[in-house]
Amino acid sequence: xxxxxxxxxxxxxTESLGAExxxxxxxxxxxxxxxxxxxxxxxxxRGAARALGVSDPVxxxxxxxxxxxxxxxxxxxxxxxxxxxxxxxxxxELLADYLGPGRIAxxxxxxxxxxxxxGARMRVTLSHGGGDRRRIDVDELAELAxxxxxx
Length: 151
Ligand code: ADP
Ligand code: MG
Hints:
Rossmann fold; 28% strand; single chain; 23% helix; binds magnesium ion; alpha/beta
């Protein structure tokens, strides 16, 4: 179900949307973040992490598949699975440290992920709109959330 569909005109607006989405997330939630390089995935996660109480700089994971940040009440996990194809063969349990109770996780390039990503609460899709404009669609994956809501 599409819950938000907006166009932002700069990174600050995309961060604000991330912060807004953070407000409706719960402990244990997983958010899939899709879009081309430079579409603003990490920018959106940065805004969400801030709103969840993360004060450390939120940067793109480069030497590992993810970062974990201490937030106000949960750990905020930020994964980038762009290069997972090779990593997964090394350790199929790789994602477990980032997901589940006590954490709220954001995953860029979830297409490369495993079945562990099947229980996502929300999917955010970003696309370039020319210049600094970005189209951002937010879907709540209610049927997968396991929260007992409407089907
Ligand atoms: P991704 O993680 O999708 O590769 P990033 O968030 O790392 O993208 O980078 C997005 C880049 O685009 C940043 O340099 C950011 O400043 C710029 N940018 C320009 N306009 C926007 C916008 N409306 N929303 C998000 N980022 C934007
Ligand atoms: Mg990124």
